[in-house]
Amino acid sequence: MSAKWFDEDWYNDIDLIESSIHDIDTADAIRVNIPTSQWPQINTNTQDAEYELSFVTSPDSAYHHVADVSSVTTPSRYMFSTVAMSFISEEVACRGTLYRPDCPNDPALIVTASGLPGRSSIISSLYAERLANAGYALFHFDVRHMGESDGTPRNHIDPAAQRDDWEAALAGLRARADVDTTRLILCGVDLGCGVAASVAANNSDVDAMIGITPIRSGRSFFDSHSRRYRLRGLIRGIRDRVQSLLTSPHTVPVYDTNEFALIDAPASYPSNSIAQSQRNAEDISTPARSFLALSRDAVKSPVTVPTVLIDKTSESGDLIKPISSMTDDMPNATTIELSFSHAELCNQPAADTVVAHIDAFLSSNLDVNVTDTD
Question: What pLDDT is attached to residue 143?
Fold first, then answer.
């Protein structure tokens, strides 16, 4: 997507801003980062399109996005702002981004996170923006040890700690006067699905749950592998515990096909939305103690709220059991299997298909009408 950015140091040069807007007829989006008090009154009409520029008055507002500006008039429901947020979970600072559509006035709120390293960019670049475009408020955050959040060792996978992070995130959102939590949806990606399910079972104000490429629990992921894999993982985990007392952690790749790794997948698998040059330089590894934490995570709390699980079509030889086997304790679950690979679910056009299914599910199970612009 091509885009034009307007930064704070531009606001004094009205002619520069105005001429730049007229020069971006081929842009797909305008992204603005200018204090509202300093925004000059300029003509935003171009020859082929009308660019609607509006602002969130909240002092911590960040970017305001206008999508699909190639049309004659951009529908207001396609605009949203992003706000950086942080919260404390057991003395660890976790960070995320709140996406707020300009309409409806009281959008349903989706809270989402991944439980595995390297997946955060997929949620933010593919799913979060599309759901915000559809009219949902969405808070996407990084669990401790991962992404923008604090916590060491980096990329440690600890489902029990992640549950605490989800609870802290919900508490922080409920405390904000500018966030409506009356219609609350949890959306877990991969291992985050099992964590979100446990949190949903323990919070009566959760109205629905979504799982994308779901893993029901750390133990179910661990047990889905061969006996040799499990033994090697436990040995590596014990080595990491001992080695960390003396020096740096013992790590293993998260994604690899050429050596022992947490997931037998190409290193590019989690990063389809990242430029190839960045992807080649990226070394995603996890402390081997993650195997120990996964093996202990057998929590499978019953989930009674409406639930949708979305995954690729199951095939013989898949390590993870098909999503239909995950619904024994989810009496109101709907399962959707799509003819995409896991890698394709991290890219286009699968993302649009997934969001369309989520939108249809929420529209039929909750009192939402995201196309209402009144």
Answer: 96
